[in-house]
Amino acid sequence: MDRNESLQLYIDQTLDIRELSSPQVQDMQDAEEYRLALLRNFTKIGRIGQENNEILRTHWLPLMHSQDPLANEDKEALDAFSHSLLDAYQAENIDLPMRYRQTKRLLDDALLQDDDDVKVCALDSMVEASFAMLHMTQRLVPVYGICYRYRDEGLKAAEQLLTYLEQDRFAKLKDKNSRHLVLINSRYISALYDRSDHYCAETNEHDLAQMHRALELGNDPFYREAAPDYDWEYHRFRTLQYITNFTELYNVRGLSKTELEGVYEETMELVALWKSNEAVYEKYCPRNLIELYRLRISRLTDRISAEEYRNRIGDLIREGDDTVFTLHGNMLQTLALSEYLFAVDKNNITPEDASNLNEFYRKLIWYVHRMPKKGSFSFMLTFLSDFLKSYVEVPGAPEFEEVCLLLMAAMHPPTYVHSLSVAEFTRCITRHLIQTRPMEFIGVLDCLNVAEVLAAEERIVDFAYHAALCHDVGKLFVMETILNYGRNLFSEEFDLIRAHPSIGAYVLSSYESTAPYANVALLHHQWYDGTAGYPTEPSGMTAPEKTIIDIVACADCLDASTDTVGRSYKNGIMLDDFLREVSLSAGTRYAPYLVELLEKPEVYRDITKILTDGRDENYRRAYEFLSHEERRE
After folding, report:
1. Who is most buried in 29, 90, 95, 503, counting CB within 10 A?
2. Are 629 and 362 in contact (CB under 8 A)?
3. Residue bearing the bigger pLDDT, 420 or 36
4. Does 567 lie in the same domain as 425?
5. Does 599 lie in the same domain as 457?
């Protein structure tokens, strides 16, 4: 098999892995068939992962690590591979970090050449790849700064690219495709304006001016004549759409009243353009999305009431086709719900709002379960993160903990089962430790002495169990990295994985029902003595939940080390092997009192039961959890 065929096989197998990691419950007769399917699938994932790593070692790494300029055939191979990994216009993404890395490599080579057309193509690819990585990392609150490297890299490339708008430079471009790319990026640069918490009047004014400049290009006779084959009407449509997107999430940017009035006029022009050629524009922007834009700006400019806005957005959510898994399908399922949540008065939830939200939440969860884990999956996660950050707990609807677990089960059943298993181990260890060393829990749930600990045993055990269930909520925000079994992770991806405790703590702390578990989620990867692990700050040494944190940390490693289903791409170890690891690391990684506790016959027996019957039962619970949602639909 030659290089191009091998790299295409890598892509095909990476897609296979995503599908294999989350089998559909509707295809299964019962829970046992589902569990066995997961076991078979992850055994296959292990084999595919090894094949993919060998493909990269043989065909990809030599090109990436070469210090010499790439030969033309090597550049063509990498370029073709890049476009297969990501098509931003179709929202098809296979491996964004890999695309980003090799795009940088190709750009370095292109900038050494004395060929402006080659440079323009390479800069355009850099903008596209940077946007995709920005989109992936924007959701990582409160470690939001990770996204700035991609925003800055993309803006740098876009600004270099837009120097070709100077008329003399534009005229010298030989390839009409290069001229088109420059014009496209005059509007596409807006995609790099991140949705941070640092918007101000100055940045809004600058960003809108940039888009108005892109609109004006279509009225300039020079560019019209220099690019006669360019689709100027589509250019205007897309630029107007990007301007409309500046009001996303109920005007999170904080545009002024005057700016909003301007956006209203431009949105109405967008609507008129769409209606002038519905057959064409429906492919780029579905009718319901156009209506969402119109409703949002109408509400933000007080042209319709808050009640009418919520009612009309609710109608759009109900009308959304939950069998369409394209980028626009994702947007209509998630963005519309986030807009509804932003418009709800959280201090005055009406019975109608509560009923609607319960309906909309269930609809979204089931949509996520059925959606393929490929294509626009990464973009879907960004929309989904907005939903999780704006979630409203209402009577009759799932509390935040249940929603997170449902989404976890829908996107990656092994992570859901891992959370269940860690919770079972945590409950077991907590109960035995209270009975043998109750003094370790002084401070937990404000217990001041041993007598109060013993009196609060059930409350402490329940708290520990639910804290463990929630410990990996942050993984929902980095799920495409969790799904990456096809190759070894890059350093950038380890940054994302290490961010999951901080992200989880942030979102859990936003809800009254889960706020008590935030510290456990934040610190469950820190070592007992605070000398290693992540995040390095704050230290968990003085946390009142210190003992619970240490138990969850141990339970987390216990499950990860011994799992032979969800992690069957690695070899699970036996319980005795894990206990030796705990003994060797007692006082540093693990709490020293856990060594003696885990070796007690009754504790060893209970842990062993969870490792066998309990884990199988948790896979059955995953099936029941998801099939219950299917029946509810």
Report:
1. 503
2. yes
3. 420
4. yes
5. yes
Distances (CA, A) of 173 to 103, 169, 176, 216: 22, 7, 7, 21
CATH number at residue 412: 1.10.3210.10
Does 541 lie in the same domain as 587?
Answer: yes
| 3-class secondary structure, 14 | helix
Phi, psi of 257 (to 5 degrees): -60, -40
Number of helices (H), then strands (E), belonging to the chain: the values are 32, 2
* Distance, CA of 189 to CA of 194 (rounded, Å): 11
User: Going by C-beta distance under 8 Å and a sequence separation of 6 or more, which residues neighbour residue 319?
Assistant: 288
Torsion of CA 68, 69, 72, 76, to 10 degrees: 100
d(CA 319, CA 216): 36
pLDDT for the residue numbered 375 = 63
The residue segments making up the domain with residue 475 are: 408-632
- Confidence check: pLDDT of 169 > 60: yes
Does 92 score more than 80 pLDDT? no
Residue type, 468: A
How many other β-carbons are positioned within 10 Å of the β-carbon of residue 436?
Answer: 13
Do 310 and 353 touch, CB atoms closer than 8 A? yes
Q: How many CB atoms lie within 10 A of CB 562?
A: 18
Paired tokens of 60: 């990809």
Model pLDDT, residue 189: 92
Give CA–CA dist 485/54, Å, rounded: 13
Q: Cα(528)–Cα(324) distance, rounded to whole angstroms?
A: 47
Q: How many CB atoms within 10 Å of residue 205?
A: 13
Domain count of the fold of the chain: 4
